[in-house]
Amino acid sequence: MIELHYWTTPNGHKITMFLEETGLAYRIVPVNIGKGDQFKPEFLAIAPNNRIPAIVDHEPAAGTRPLSIFESGAILLYLADKTGQLLSRDLYVRNDTLQWLFWQMGGLGPMAGQNHHFSNYAPEKIPYAIERYVKETNRLYGVLNKRLADREFIAGDYSIADIACYPWIVPYKNQSQNIDDFPHLKRWLLAIEQRPATQRAYAKAKEVNPDFGQATIRTDEERKVLFGQSAAVVR
């Protein structure tokens, strides 16, 4: 049984998508990041960076005790190796997949995240910051669109690279992107959206968080919890 500490963000969706795709048994432990659940000692014990998602595998293949993992990319890699699914064992395909997984972790996710913040959440609209991240998101969309021009999925077959990238492309409108400018990316986006496992994963999001899909910060306290952090929160 996989214990998934989760909230309804793009990084959270990655793991529910994987688990639904593979049929691995799991249980969701909601971590409401708007209320500060990510700072509770029991969560910090498995996720010291106070970010979701995190997992606890109560049945690791070669372990004598439960194994906890944080960081969505590390979780995807672990689960792919555990199940033997969504990550090829072929040397070339495996490394092709992993480089695109890390591309998402180091580029698409952080840049789109800053795009979201300055465009939608920041109390002060700073034109330079908005332009900087909207343009960089646009560049990254272009990179992925080019990659998909001659293949169905990022590394050939559907893999953890696609699962990592998909939730960060879904909110393209909030990122001030026109998906029609990227026809190969649009085709890929629709293909993944139509997968039954993807639909089940996003249905779980609505069950866990009835406010899922709302892009507004409702209170000043919620804004402080989400964006007013310093080292004090992990001491």
Automatic annotation (TrEMBL):
Organism: Rhodopseudomonas faecalis
Residues of the GST N-terminal domain: 1-87
Name of the protein in its database record: GST-like protein
Coiled-coil segments: none
Family stated for the protein in its record: Belongs to the GST superfamily.
Entry superkingdom: Bacteria
CDD domains (alphabetical): GST_C_YfcG_like, GST_N_Ure2p_like
Domain GST C-terminal, residue spans: 90-212
